[in-house]
Design brief:
The chain is 17% helix and 38% strand. With 138 residues, the chain is of the alpha+beta class. The protein has a seven-stranded antiparallel beta sheet, covered by helices on one side. Strands 7-6-9 form a three-stranded antiparallel beta sheet, with no helix packed on it.
Length: 138
């Protein structure tokens, strides 16, 4: 049994770049949690405030959303890592390469959704500037 499910063209009404910038502005102005691993790679922990994300959260019965944004492919991400909870990630803009357990590969396009079970190693590599939403129940 695979630890990953990919749904192509899950929802093409994706978060726009402008909505992402507005969310960063909202996050900064309200002094909410924001990570910047290096210049050009941002993680906002308040993406559940984006209207198009709210619809997807409701559809998937999730409560919270984080926004991942790479403005350049060279800015990297978190590398090969494992999460303690199931990862539900919606590709909104750009393309990413997902490498699962260092052997399985998936290229996500805007609108695609990937689910990775908890405890599964994965590495997300931006192939273009990208914007995506990761969702969870807590």
């Amino acid at each position: 049994m695979s630890n990953v499910i990919v749904r192509r063209k899950f929802n093409l009404d994706t978060v726009t770049w402008q909505e992402a910038i507005d969310n960063l502005d909202y996050t900064i102005n309200n002094k909410l949690e924001l990570k910047m691993k290096e210049p050009g790679f941002y993680v906002s922990f308040s993406a559940h405030h984006i209207p198009s994300t709210m619809k997807v959260l409701e559809q998937l019965e999730q409560k919270y959303a984080h926004m991942y944004m790479n403005l350049a492919t060279s800015t990297g991400t978190f590398g090969n890592h494992v999460d303690t909870m199931k990862v539900i990630y919606w590709q909104c803009q750009g393309q990413t390469l997902w490498i699962i357990d260092e052997r399985e590969q998936h290229i996500l396009q805007p609108g695609d959704l990937i689910t990775v079970e908890a405890g599964t190693y994965h590495n997300v590599i931006p192939l273009t500037p990208r914007l995506g939403i990761s969702m969870a129940t807590k």
